[in-house]
Amino acid sequence: MSTSYNNETDSTSSERRTKKYRSFSLSPSVNDESSCGASACGSAESESCGISIPKGEVSRRNLLKLIGKGAAATVAAGVGVELLTYRAYAQSGSTTTPNGLGTNGNMTPGMAAAMADPAAPPDHQWAMVIDLRNCDGCGSCTAACQKAHYLTPDQTWIKVFSMANNDGQTYHMPRPCMQCEDPPCLHVCPVEATFRTDQGVVLVNQDRCIGCRMCMAACPYEARYFNWTADVQYPTTPIPPTPQAPIPQKLGTVGKCTFCVGNLNNGLLSECASGCPMGAIYNADLKTDVAVNGLGSTVKLSTFLYNNDAVTFYPEQNTHPRVWYIVGHGQNLDTNSTTA
Amino acid sequence: MDKNSPIPPRDDNYSDTESAWAVDVREAATRGMTQKASRKWWLAIALLSLMVLAGVYAWYYQLKHGMASAGYNDQAFWAVYIADVIAFIGVSYGGAVISAILRLTGQSWRAPLTRIAEGMALATVIVGAMFIFPHLGRPERFMNIVYYANWSSPLVWDFLAIMTYTVATIIFFYIPLIPDLAIVNRHLGSSNSPMRRKIYSALSLNWMGNKRQRRLLHGSLTLISLVIIPLAVSVHSVLSWAFALTSRPGWAETVFPPYFVIAALYSGTALVIVTAAAFRSGYKLQRFITQRHFVRIGYLMAALGLVYLYLTFADMATEGYTGITTGWITQTITGRYAIPFWIYVLFGELIPIVVVAVKKFRNIKGLTFAAGGVVVALWIKRLVIVLPPATQPLIGSYWGAYHFTWVSITITLAGVAAVPLILMVMFRLIPILSIEEMEEAGPIGSIEQISDKTEKYQDTLLAGGRNLEHVKQKTPSAGLQMSGVDPISPQTTPALAVNPNVNTGGFSINPGEIR
Ligand code: SF4
Ligand code: SF4
Questions:
Q1: Is residue B222 within a helix (H) or strand (E), and if so which, with residue range?
Q2: Residue B78 resides in a domain
Q3: Most-buried pick from A167, B128, B138, B380 (CB within 10 A)?
């Protein structure tokens, strides 16, 4: 592969993606009433709106409590427009969802009706925020994930890409499964081995997967890998593998990030979030509108996203990812050149 | 058939006419069934079976050790086996559609080729469908596609389309066989084992050759010919959608369905030429399958080749020009896939076009060589369609790579060997020529329907050369020229052919047959 070729492609494709992205990007002027200080958060902080908790004070145990507290705070403070949109989406189970906060105010009558319905079943709609300003590319998230899930080095539920901006500066971007709300991997699976839970997590049933790899072709984020070889020593586990915890992996089937949904439902952080020494990865819940990282910093999700101009990856694919990125240094999340 | 109705009288003017032509056709068509297999035949069978067995072993190995042993990895997640599926089902399509179109348009010269083309279509669709199994990581769960079908998945449509098409191919193969099996039963008489005779007579559905049966046969043949064309179009469109319905640059192309359909037709026509050439010399059918058959199919092949070239260009032109996602194009033309791509351009486009265009090369040898090149080049082209978009990076810039291993090569070669194996065994059990159709078309129709003067003159020679079979067999490539009749100038030919007084070597050429 020639280097010159690469540069060429990169610039063209990144230009195109930048253009596309800009049409989607958040502009601060979208909806001023909804800005954090005014209505949603209620606290004096306008920048991060975070409920800052000293390091170490948060154990995984009391996370649940925190999340509950966040929910209470939201209700008490009245609901910001962006939050309304998220919650309406989360409760309606609709496949059209705010893609970042730029779509504020686009609530449809159906969404409003769904929001008014108190019988919406799931308590959580899991999501994730990755703050690229804090990521130093150490790869601890990948290591923690692989250790906890007994993965081989090739099997990356979360993978850190080393990217370069157009101006040549590098940044690092961890890529978990985006838990797309309109997941192409799910639509193309011929046997419905890929499914989406009512908490918005896309999972793979490795007992049904026929190993056709159509989902790998369809996923725009390279989030899936395949169990290609039998020459791996997997541990024997006391409980049989489930879609939530596919451990050990099964030969000839596909695998991907599960969002550690078992952890989340038990009040624990995902392995990557708790494994990140920089606190760059936040586990989030659209329903309670809270995001928490491994350092224990808890923020109000909607305001956090809004204030930091959070974006999703390849929004032009219309997959509506549940993973948001905060790009603080002018990255545009779309270049194709790696430095590592 | 209504059992109670009295058996209609045999239409003696038709299928049972023991004209000299009919005698010859029957003898030639059943040659494989009556003659003892030569040592060469057994040798070929042994070799081909060995290759198939090696493939089965390689598949067992792959099942045991995982698909990494076939060279797959997370970026080359689709590679050789899916290219095999497309290539094999593609050539099948070519065989079936060529035969269907020629039937529908009433090209009587198709008669000596239809059985070979349809047999080839059947053998390749079976092998092509088989390649789905090594492609899957969990082939034992294959039936999940039926149990848990997700109708939004293009693979479920694929499954449905391939199954339907396979059934249609079997029917398409079987219907013209009905009268032939009855004829064979009568022709072989007691030399046929009783068991075989029973099976044939059961399969031939009490064929008598009367008017009603003939009408039924023609009607159903027309119907299935009409059905198989859109069916085959749908199979290849759906196959292409397995690629085009993803968001990968290089696959998500609107041109893909026709691109796949034309590729299938093109490679299929080429394989018809190769198969016909092989069985022509193997079964000494030089008299029935002539150079002009090859030239005609060759023209068809070249036309399809040009359309395919155009589509290949169209596929790359839009993206290449706008520069949106050109990685796969650059890699294909100048990068790591450049060698296979240019092999395709050379053997899949330039050589066949030159061979067909230049009169000097436009003979059986040249066309067979070109067609063989096309079949291989189009398999390579499929790989070039599959691999660059699969291995391209969607994030970052790391290109994946596919490396052939002995497992994937052995399995692919097993498929390649299985096709001639199936055909060779098949033509030991059924006539290699479509007897009924050839008798209906007659000697002139079968070999030439519409011809220029020179060719008509060759026809006449051919018809007269019946008793000189041994001469022909010695020098097969000389094709039509072998005859005891002196060369006659083209101008005098029609007169000769329609003149009943001329000795045409036992053929009763009805003047009315020459239009
Ligand atoms: S590899 Fe498995 S999960 Fe993926 S599409 Fe095929 S059957 Fe579905
Ligand atoms: S990121 Fe890929 S694997 Fe994950 S849900 Fe989206 S399409 Fe599916």
A1: helix B211-244
A2: yes
A3: B128
Task: Judge whether B245 and B40 are in contact, CB under 8 Å.
Answer: no
Tell me the per-residue pLDDT of A171-212, one tens digit each, with 9 for 90 and over.
Answer: 889 999 999 999 999 999 999 999 998 888 999 999 999 999
Question: Domain boundary at B445, B477, B502, which?
Answer: B445
Enclosing domain of residue B509: 451-513
Binary contact (A336, B243; C-beta < 8 A): no
- Based on the domain organization, do B463 and B328 belong to the same domain? no
Residue B455 and residue B437 share a domain: no
* In contact, A242 and A249? CB cutoff 8 Å: no
Specify the 3-state DSSP secondary structure of B292. Answer: helix
* CB distance A221 to ligand 2 below 6 Å: yes
ipTM of this predicted structure: 0.77
B174 φ, ψ (degrees, to nearest 5): -80, -40
Size of interface A-B (CB pairs under 8 A): 166
Structural domains present in chain A: 11-121 (no CATH), 126-185+201-337 (3.30.70.20)
Domain final residue pick, B428, B445, B462 = B445
Q: Pick the closest to residue B226 from B172, B179, B269 (CA basis).
A: B172
DSSP character string of A128-183 = EEEETTT-----HHHHHHHHHTT--TT--SSEEEEEE-TTS-EEEEEE-----SS-
Q: Hey, is the C-beta of B337 within 8 angstroms of any chain A C-beta?
A: no
Interfacial A residues in 99-158 facing B (CB < 8 Å) = 154
**A252–B138 C-beta distance less than 8 A:** yes
Give yes or no for a contact between B495 and B453, defined as CB atoms under 8 angstroms apart: no
Q: Is any ligand 2 atom within 6 A of the Cβ of residue A184?
A: yes
What pLDDT is attached to residue B455? 52
Co-location of B408 and B501 in the same domain: no
> Are residue B415 and residue B487 in the same domain, yes or no?
no
Low-confidence ranges of chain B (pLDDT < 50): 1-17, 449-454, 457, 465-515
> What is the H or E stretch that residue B69 is in?
none
Alpha helix stretches (DSSP H) within chain A: 3-24, 63-77, 81-92, 109-116, 140-148, 184-188, 214-218, 261-265, 271-275, 301-307
Instruction: Residue B349: name the closest of B313, B298, B308 by CA.
Output: B308
Specify the CATH number for the domain of residue B90. 1.20.1630.10
Alpha-carbon gap, residue A212 to B243, rounded angstroms? 13
**Which residues from B are below 8 Å from A13, CB to CB?**
324-327
Sequence-distant (≥ 6) Cβ neighbours of residue A71 within 8 angstroms: A287, A288, A289, A290
Contact at CB, A229 and B330, closer than 8 angstroms: no
Count of domains for chain B: 2
Same domain, B104 and B182: yes
Whether residues B363 and B467 share a domain: the answer is no
Peptide bond into A248 cis (omega under 30): yes
**pTM of the predicted structure, to 2 decimals:** 0.77
Interface of B with A in 168-197 (CB under 8 A): none
Distance CA A169, CA B390 (A): 28
Ligand located closest to A184 CA: 2
The span from the CA of B274 to the CA of B272, in Å, is 6
